[in-house]
Amino acid sequence: MTFRHRALATAGALAVLLAVEPLAAPVAAHDGPIETTPPDERDLWVSLGARVHGGFGSLIAAGIRIGDDARRRLGAAPRELDVTYFSSPGAPCPCIVDGVMIATRASPGQATLRVSDAPAGDTLFGRVVIRHKPSGRTLEYAVPAAIWPRLRDINKETTGAGRWDAVMAISAAEMMTVRELPPAPPAPKP
Fold first, then answer.
1. Labelling 169: which of 9, 13, 67, 76 has CA 20 to 30 A away?
2. How far apart are alpha carbons 81 and 77 in whole angstroms?
3. Which residues does the UniProt record annotate as the domain Formylmethanofuran dehydrogenase subunit E (predicted)?
4. What is the layout of strands, in order, in the sheet containing 113-115?
């Protein structure tokens, strides 16, 4: 290989490294409420939601919002939350739970996430019970049935980012009610 070929190969490798390296660099985490997430982090949430669920709609964004709120309120680290989702017969699917799964990192494979056969309740679109395993603290999120028409209409927005922004613009009081349930016993340590 001549000097010229080595120089071109080195320049090409450097160009690839410079193009790929920023993609591998971690994005600084946003520590504020999920509703104020900057666009670069929002786009990561949207991408992950689309990959996990097969598309990114308003219900995924709502689930991420609920899961992140619980994680923050409970001060939970990854793998410390146990989630049970209750759906309404009027809900088209329990899609909210996929967003909750993404935000809490709970999963069926870890036996920390399940969809109950029991209904959410007469006036509810969905209900999420999230327990912090180390402390036993438990939060219940009730999503009112009245929010469904608005969430459905948000899905007319053509982009995931637009759907995210629309869901995050809904007031917390309109989106959900949160209450702390009596503490459950902490999970036993293995």
1. 76
2. 8
3. 52-149
4. 113-115, 81-87, 124-132, 138-144, 177-181
The pLDDT tens digits of the residues spanning 85-98 come to 999 998 988 999 99
Tokens standing for residue 150: 């608005």
**pTM for this entry:** 0.79
Burial of 106 (0-12, 13-18, 19+ CB in 10 A): buried
Domains of the chain plus CATH, in order, are 36-181 (3.30.1330.130)
CA distance 6 to 41: 39
Neighbouring CB atoms inside 10 A of 98's CB total 22
**Count of CA atoms in the C-beta half-sphere (13 A) of 158:** 0
Q: And the tokens for 25?
A: 């660099």
Task: Identify residue 5 by its one-letter amino acid code.
Answer: H
